[in-house]
């Protein structure tokens, strides 16, 4: 029959349209301030810095390698490397950021900084309510505002955070394991006796 596909398409559209008024599970709109849609794990908004432990300054995973600053397309990350060092998660002495700022008015949430970070120190947040009633909001976020605990990372990205923690635990175990020396081999070219 001529136009059968058109009629099937119109019927499907009508079923979806009227079904959204009848079934609660079909409603796609939420009344925002009162109701909240569930957070999607794969969503991303602005970056944040992950820290381990209770003290955000001591537990910050960032070691000022400056890779994220170099790879950022809009150049919104500003890092100043410290002159002294502190131990990282595996106990190795590393530099830390004396200053770490992100200009969120320029950030395009591309996640390139997350992808290039070899220390899993910077991740993407799902929080999108960053507006305030003040006209001149502070849009240059410093490391204190960017620092969020590992527990928060587990809340918003549980699958990814579990994998990252497993990798860090393996690296810590490898660093803590005593290094075994190989057995000494005879220096001469003689064949051992049988």
Automatic annotation (TrEMBL):
Gene Ontology MF term list: 4 iron, 4 sulfur cluster binding; metal ion binding; oxidoreductase activity, acting on NAD(P)H; quinone binding
Keyword Ubl conjugation among UniProt keywords: no
Domain 4Fe-4S ferredoxin-type as annotated: residue spans: 52-82, 98-127
Alphabetized InterPro entries for the sequence: 4Fe4S_Fe-S-bd (IPR017896), 4Fe4S_Fe_S_CS (IPR017900), NADH_quinone_OxRdtase_chainI (IPR010226)
Name this protein carries in UniProt: NADH-quinone oxidoreductase subunit I
The species this protein was found in: Granulicella pectinivorans
Keyword Iron assigned: yes
Sorted UniProt keywords: 4Fe-4S, Cell membrane, Iron, Iron-sulfur, Membrane, Metal-binding, NAD, Quinone, Repeat, Translocase, Ubiquinone
UniProt-annotated stretches for the region Disordered: 175-194
């Amino acid at each position: 029959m001529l136009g059968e596909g058109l009629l099937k398409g119109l019927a499907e559209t009508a079923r979806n349209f009227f079904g959204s008024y009848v079934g609660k599970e079909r409603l796609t709109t939420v009344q925002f301030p009162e109701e909240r849609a569930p957070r999607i794990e794969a969503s991303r908004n602005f970056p944040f810095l992950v820290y381990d432990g209770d003290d955000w300054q001591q537990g910050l995973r960032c070691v000022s390698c400056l890779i994220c600053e170099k790879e950022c397309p809009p150049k919104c990350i500003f890092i100043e490397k410290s002159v002294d060092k502190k131990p990282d998660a595996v106990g190795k002495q590393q530099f830390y950021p004396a200053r770490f700022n992100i200009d969120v008015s320029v950030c395009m949430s591309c996640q390139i900084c997350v992808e290039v970070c070899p220390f899993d120190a910077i991740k993407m947040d799902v929080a999108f309510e960053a507006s305030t009633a003040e006209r001149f909001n502070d849009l240059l976020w410093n490391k204190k505002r960017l620092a969020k605990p590992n527990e928060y990372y587990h809340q918003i990205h549980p699958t990814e955070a579990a994998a990252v923690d497993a990798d860090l635990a393996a690296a810590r175990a490898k660093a803590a394991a005593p290094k075994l020396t190989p057995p000494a081999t005879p220096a001469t070219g003689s064949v051992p006796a049988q």
